[in-house]
User: Which sequence fits this backbone?
């Protein structure tokens, strides 16, 4: 093995490969009107501080899904996450969960997780533990 041209990029790829091998779980990613794909995802979180109308600050943590860009291929096309996409996950107890991809706190619904653009950090909001997700009125 020769010396990599960009040692940091090589180290980043090595780190992501290890994380994908040992820290991922299978999820189903669905783009409404586009289709769906089963792929591996790592779970993450984003912490935000928001302020209400009375000036009180709240710390809010949202669920993130870290998905390799090249894995998010639906019906042969590379898919960019969009608000309204859905992520389905079954936990260790067999309980099914639905997460909605959403814009969070003025940010886009996703961003690049690493400086090389190989992994999406997708922001999602827990919708329900049962299918389908029915909005509460």
Assistant:
């Amino acid at each position: 093995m020769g010396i990599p041209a960009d040692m940091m990029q090589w180290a980043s790829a090595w780190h992501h490969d290890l994380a994908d091998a040992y820290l991922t779980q299978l999820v189903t990613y669905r783009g409404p009107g586009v289709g769906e794909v089963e792929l591996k995802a790592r779970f993450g979180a984003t912490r935000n501080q928001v302020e209400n109308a009375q000036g009180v600050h709240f710390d809010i943590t949202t669920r993130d899904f870290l998905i390799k860009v090249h894995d998010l291929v639906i019906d042969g096309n590379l898919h960019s996450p969009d608000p309204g996409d859905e992520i389905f996950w079954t936990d260790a107890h067999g309980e099914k969960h639905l997460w909605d991809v959403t814009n969070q706190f003025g940010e886009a619904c996703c961003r690049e997780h690493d400086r090389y653009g190989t992994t999406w950090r997708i922001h999602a909001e827990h919708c329900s533990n049962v299918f389908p997700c029915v909005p509460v009125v």
